[in-house]
Automatic annotation (TrEMBL):
<feature type="domain" description="Thiolase C-terminal">
    <location>
        <begin position="238"/>
        <end position="373"/>
    </location>
</feature>
<dbReference type="InterPro" id="IPR016039">
    <property type="entry name" value="Thiolase-like"/>
</dbReference>
<dbReference type="GO" id="GO:0003988">
    <property type="term" value="F:acetyl-CoA C-acyltransferase activity"/>
</dbReference>
<dbReference type="InterPro" id="IPR055140">
    <property type="entry name" value="Thiolase_C_2"/>
</dbReference>
<protein>
    <recommendedName>
        <fullName>Thiolase C-terminal domain-containing protein</fullName>
    </recommendedName>
</protein>
<dbReference type="Pfam" id="PF22691">
    <property type="entry name" value="Thiolase_C_1"/>
</dbReference>
<dbReference type="InterPro" id="IPR002155">
    <property type="entry name" value="Thiolase"/>
</dbReference>
Length: 374
């Protein structure tokens, strides 16, 4: 299937505090922009895949969004793998196109936790809340602390991730947080949950994004301006909660990456640019290890050496990622990967023939890997 499906269009809304906007209205705006980018009329869309809102999930999300868009797709559904749903939907859509179950697919997501409700991010995990295990940061902090104890990962190495993200986000006019961050500023920040400081944690953001998928053959027939081929994808899942895992420092990114690299016929050394899920600073460090860009335990040194900066050998999260562009889970990483491969990113890497994108959900329970290229 290498290159037989393409991302034909991308679109998004503003990111940040968008008072008065519902998730559905944001999806409509983002989808309109994605269809315009692909130069496709909405009447041609026959499949719609929607990631449900995290802050206000509802039944029949796919059908509610279809109604708002004025569509009657023959294939329509909502898809929940947490943040990994983005690449999960791309994978399913690619297979459905290949099987001729559908022709043109819209994949979309939106949420408004910043001006709506962010209560879901603060909830306790069962009775463990009595002992301070409250909210998403606490769970990721356990993983980060274990990585630090096991491999000697340092606070400065954690800080290298948001520093790079903020440098890149400062060049992105769409980024929610465009203020550069120095190491001194980072180390002076208060802890949210040790070892995480404020800048180690993803933004809380309103916003929406969408992409349009079709076969490469269909894109040629429609004279799509800048289709980006999908070279490979893979999924992985750890079914165990953090408290039940035997190993906190390895994830099923190893599984999804192996599948994606095999499908693409590529290896880590063939990748020019990366857009890696960075809900917390430890996540891309571990993803770099699990993807094979460095050995296990060396992810901290990898990022500290500046290799993920725009002028490094693996520019990462070149629009700012979840730490600077928007905290919405994952779709923005695919959009920036497309821009890099097209060569029209705000902060363009010197070489971007191939791009790897990661998405993950829960507390590193689900993982998706996508490889795209020209």
């Amino acid at each position: 299937m290498r290159g037989r499906t393409v991302i034909a269009g991308i679109g998004h809304t503003a990111f940040g505090a968008l008072s008065g906007r519902s998730a559905t209205s944001l999806i409509v705006e983002a989808t309109r922009n994605a269809l315009a980018d692909a130069n496709v009329d909405k009447t041609m869309v026959d499949a719609l895949l929607v990631k449900p809102s995290t802050s206000a999930p509802q039944l029949m999300t796919g059908q509610i969004v279809a109604e708002a868009l004025g569509l009657q797709p023959k294939l329509g559904m909502s898809w929940d793998q947490g943040g990994a749903a983005v690449i999960g939907m791309i994978s399913y859509a690619s297979l459905a196109i290949e099987a001729r179950l559908c022709d043109i697919v819209v994949i979309c997501f939106a949420d408004n936790p910043r001006t709506g409700s962010s209560e879901v991010y603060r909830s306790s995990t069962g009775t463990d809340g009595l002992f301070g295990y409250v909210g998403v940061p606490a769970a990721y902090a356990m993983i980060a602390r274990r990585h630090m104890e096991q491999y000697g990962t340092t606070p400065r190495q954690l800080g290298a991730v948001p520093i790079a993200a903020r440098r890149h986000g400062a060049a992105n006019p769409s980024a929610q947080l465009r203020k550069p961050l120095s190491m001194a500023d980072y180390l002076n920040e208060p802890y949210i949950v040790d070892p995480f400081r404020r800048s180690d944690c993803a933004l809380v953001s309103d916003g929406g994004a969408a992409i349009v998928l079709m076969s490469a053959e269909r894109a040629m027939q429609l004279a799509v301006r800048a289709p980006v081929p999908i070279l490979g994808f893979g999924l992985g899942q750890s079914s165990w909660d953090v408290r039940l895992r035997q190993d906190l420092t390895t994830t099923c990114a190893t599984v999804s990456a192996t599948t994606a690299f095999s499908a693409a016929g590529l290896a880590p050394e063939d990748i020019d640019v990366a857009q890696l899920y960075d809900c917390f600073s430890i996540v891309p460090i571990m993803t770099l290890e699990d993807y094979g860009f460095c050995k296990k335990g060396q992810g901290g040194a990898f990022v500290e050496e500046g290799r993920i900066e725009i002028d490094g050998d693996l520019p990462m999260n070149t629009a700012g990622g979840l730490l600077s562009e928007t905290g919405m889970p994952g779709m923005q990483l695919v959009l920036e990967g497309v821009r890099q491969v097209r060569g029209n990113a705000n902060l363009q890497a010197r070489k971007a023939n191939t791009c790897i994108v990661s998405s993950q959900g829960g507390i590193m329970q689900t993982h998706g890997t996508l490889i795209i290229g020209g």
